[in-house]
Design brief:
Radius of gyration: 15 Å
Order of helices and strands: EHEHEEEHEEHEH
Distance between the termini: 7 Å
Number of strands: 8
Shape: globular
Largest sheet: 5 strands, mixed, barrel
Mean pLDDT: 90
Strand order of the largest sheet: 3-7-6-4-8
Low-confidence stretches: none
């Protein structure tokens, strides 16, 4: 069976696992992921990393139901959403008790999603749409898992909980990989 491709923006977010460091932002993420998927077969894509959140505590794990590209606006129809694979989303949720499953907004700027309309908690990261869109075009199921590291719009990086979020993410990756390995076809 082909392996699962783990994708993260930075080496730190891979938490010691072999995977693809796609770079920061939606363009780098899309290009790097598309290249990796074109070079060899993968059973699934697991995109991991840190995120900002509104109404969500630092250290909370979020499983993305979809990636919403909130920087994109045009006068004609555009593709601005990439759904996580339903089966992988439910599998990741089962592997991560206490996680929440909601859309994750993608913005090329920190805080770029803070004005997005949301009736509940809001999550923002910088690569999800690029990774999930590349996987969709390659017909590879994908899911995004994020650990909340900061309040959305918090500009003082000293107040971000990066170490705590990385510790949570480090503990989550093996559980999700094991669960996805049992179901990825």
């Amino acid at each position: 069976m082909p392996p699962i491709l783990i994708v993260a923006a930075t080496d730190r977010e891979l938490c010691g696992h072999d995977g693809l460091v796609c770079g920061v932002g939606p363009v780098e993420a899309a290009a790097s992921t598309a290249r990796a998927l074109a070079l060899r077969p993968f059973a699934a894509v697991l995109h991991v990393g840190l995120a900002g959140g509104r109404g969500i505590a630092t250290g909370t794990l979020v499983v993305g139901t979809e990636a919403v590209y909130c920087d994109l606006a045009a006068e004609w129809p555009v593709i601005a959403r990439a759904a996580g694979d339903d089966h992988l989303v439910s599998t990741a949720r089962e592997a991560l008790p206490g996680s929440i499953a909601i859309p994750i907004h993608t913005s090329a700027a920190v805080g770029g999603a803070r004005d997005a309309v949301s009736e509940g908690p809001l999550v923002e990261a910088m690569e999800g749409f690029g990774v999930l869109r590349a996987a969709a075009l390659a017909a590879v199921p994908a899911v995004e898992v994020r650990a909340i590291s900061n309040a959305l719009g918090e500009h003082d990086r000293a107040r971000w909980g990066i170490a705590e979020a990385l510790t949570v993410l480090e503990g989550a990756i093996p559980a999700v990989l094991a669960a996805l390995g049992r179901v990825a076809v």
